[in-house]
Queue: 2 jobs
Job 1
Amino acid sequence: MYPLKLYFKNSLNIVFLSLALLMNISLWVWLFLDIGPREEQIFLHYNILYGVDLIGTWGKVLYLPIIGLCILIINAFLGWLLFERSKVPAYLLSLSSVVCHIFLLLAAYLLVFLNV
């Protein structure tokens, strides 16, 4: 196995994984500040044909950053396992974490816009 310390010292891994981690932290903060704990139900999904079709508690909005954190951890672990054989798949996994977080931030924007 490739040493974990060396995997995280690689410059591309540092950039991609820290960017994804920064986006995940900002997702947590943004959802807590704008939606936060509420007594009333919030809109969780909007469909252009039917309007709001899913309503739930505010805690369900936290599924977005939880999913993002799981994606980040799994991709970092798989990238570490693949890094010894070939660096390109490891870089692609790290980059895919960033891309996934971009889409999660977009989904969070839509949730905040729907509930504010």
Job 2
Amino acid sequence: MSKLLMIDNYDSFTYNIIHYLEQIDGVEIVIYQPHELKDMKESFSGIIISPGPSHPKDRPDTMGFVESYWGKVPILGICLGHQMLWYMTGGDVQRGDRPIHGHVYTITHDNSELFQALPECFDVTRYHSLEASGENSQFEVTARTEDNVNMAIRHKHLPIYGVQYHPEAILSNHGMDQLALFVDIVKGSAL
């Protein structure tokens, strides 16, 4: 049984992600909000950082906690979580050209770990005003929109991943597949 820590950044989408994860065999989920992390005593095999409002710089509690597990367990950041991973390693997170909430975009990916055996292009649902931009020395961009917006990242040396879009959204294709691929990474991790 793999125990996943879900960091709930006060977002209504968090429980949609949890519902998907509950359908995967061999997974137990524990849920903590940022203000509870300092008192957490449980052990876990992987971390998922949920979507949420605000800029990553406004979440030092979450980023500090995640940093303390860097290289110890696999990590997946979704939306705000994706931006946090980019930001805490020196990347820029800034306002996009316009807010995108509930819009479907096609992404193209590089067939890396979170995209294995998935179609080269597929539709995802975006809910964000901020985006990870520019370059980052620790991460590779693994998926982009047709207009070249960073939609997914992976760390160059560690099992740490981020997706800007919402895999749990009803109009996102292959979201359940991607969460199952992350669980497989957690189960196979030797960290």
